[in-house]
Amino acid sequence: MNAIRIDGKAIAEDLRARVARDVASLKAEWSVIPGLAVVLVGKNPASSVYVKTKARQAQALGFKSQQFLLPGDVGEAELLEVIEELNADESIDGILVQLPLPGHIDLWRVLEAIDPAKDVDGFHPYNVGRLAAGRPALAPCTPLGVVHLIRTVVSNLSGLDVVVIGRSNIIGKPLALLLGDAGCTVTGAQLQTRNLPDFCRKADIVVAAAGCAGLVRGDWLKPGAIVIDVGINRTIDSRGTAKLVGDVDFAEASKRASYITPVPGGVGPMTVAYLLANTVNAAVSRRRLSLVVNPEARHIWPSCDREQDGAVDLQRAT
Ligand code: NAD
Fold first, then answer.
1. How much distance in Å is there from the Cα of 279 to the middle of ligand 1?
2. Are residues 148 and 258 in the same domain?
3. Which CATH number does the domain housing residue 97 bear?
4. Residue 232 beta carbon below 6 angstroms from any ligand 1 atom
5. Comparing C-alpha atoms, which of 215, 298, 198 is closest to residue 249?
6. Which residue has the least CA distance to atom 4 on ligand 1?
7. Is there an atom of ligand 1 within 6 Å of 246 CB?
8. Distance CA 213, CA 40 (A)
9. Considering 268, 283, 306, which residue would you say is the last residue of a domain?
10. How many domains, the chain?
């Protein structure tokens, strides 16, 4: 079997085009320009690249985009002050504090300081709790992107067996919730899991989010499985060239899977696209706009399977 690549770059481009249409509608119908503020502490090179990408894409789609670049030794109180100002700023709909933060800053104090209505990363315990309770919530971007990618190849997830490798707050845990809501039977695996290959071999879908290069081998997979590789690992190849690889042995897995995401060009672009989608979503729900910005939008907003209970349904957000 030769797996078909799921082209995250193209799918994210399509999603961004829809978001751009929504931004244009918001402006035309309500004179609203969604605003995204990204806060970066220190000069971590990878974080700087992520922040620039987010700001550039936000600008390209018509958002108001602001970057706050704070020195690595900024005091926690000063950072909290910046967040307070952004919470109070009516022109800002989404606040993202780029992680990781330096060790002298209390991560939870910072995340909990963000207004949950502007928490476009979906990390605030308020949103985490609402997501867990099946209530409308701003959900984390990478898990939303993963579910979206899976839906491009299988529309009905009901009854499928999924293994999610990794149970971090930003990926594994919220992803397990979203997939469970979609009707999947989810096995949440982590470092302590015994016989991980055996769990994977029974799964219709394997999502790898462990941060462990080449962890998932070809013979771990059921023939025809769908494989989503969230991992981003920096490695040096045999010629000494720096390279990004995922958590899946791509060559081996491609021989067994039906569909597979590459690294790079799989989940990564979806994460940024959902940040922008979440920001529009926050702009709409914060203002309680009764607005149909895009009839297709309903399936891109968080937790598409929650339409029945009105979750993030723009038409009913009155
Ligand atoms: P994390 O370190 O917070 O969590 C890793 C999880 O994987 C933990 O639950 C750990 O128990 C589990 N794990 C680690 N090694 C394992 C193993 N050998 N077997 C089974 N479980 C194992 O990491 P994170 O922040 O969730 O990120 C995970 C990966 O996803 C990283 O490579 C990160 O760079 C990447 N990532 C990608 C995107 C994207 O947009 N594609 C976004 C964020 C993070």
1. 25
2. yes
3. 3.40.50.10860
4. yes
5. 215
6. 168
7. no
8. 27
9. 268
10. 2
- Answer yes or no: do 100 and 145 share one domain: no
Among the three residues 223, 253, 268, which one is the final residue of a domain in this structure?
268
Measured CA to CA in angstroms, residue 149 lies from 9, 62, 124 at distances of 11, 25, 24
What is the SS3 string spanning 88-127? HCCCCCEEEECCCCCCCCCHHHHHHHCCHHHCCCCCCHHH
Whether the CB-CB separation of 274 and 299 falls below 8 Å is answered with no
Q: Is residue 315, in this structure, part of any structural domain at all?
A: no
Same domain, 204 and 239: yes
Residue of 9, 51, 165 to test ligand 1 pocket, by largest number of atoms within 8 Å of CB: 165
In a domain, 218, yes or no: yes
Is 36 close to ligand 1, i.e. is its CB under 6 Å away? no
Catalytic residues, by residue number, are 54, 98, 121
144 Cβ closer than 6 Å to some ligand 1 atom: no
Structure-block tokens of residue 167: 């149970």
- Tens of pLDDT along the chain (318 residues)? 799 999 999 999 999 999 999 999 999 988 999 999 999 999 999 999 999 999 999 999 999 999 999 999 999 999 999 999 999 999 999 999 999 999 999 999 999 999 999 999 999 999 999 999 888 889 999 999 999 999 999 989 999 999 999 999 999 999 999 999 999 999 999 999 999 999 999 999 999 999 999 999 999 999 999 999 999 999 998 899 999 999 999 999 999 999 999 999 999 999 999 999 999 999 988 887 755 444 344 433 443 333 333 333 333 232
Instruction: Count Cβ atoms within 10 A of the Cβ of residue 88 and give its class: 0-12 exposed, 13-18 middle, 19 or more buried.
Output: exposed
Atom of ligand 1 nearest to the CA of 145: 40
Spacing, Cα 290 to ligand 1 middle (Å): 38
pTM value? 0.93
Q: Which domain holds residue 99?
A: 32-115
Q: Is the CB of 214 under 6 A from ligand 1?
A: no
Q: Are residues 146 and 111 in the same domain?
A: no
First to last CA, the chain: 49
Q: Which atom of ligand 1 is nearest to the CA of 270?
A: 40
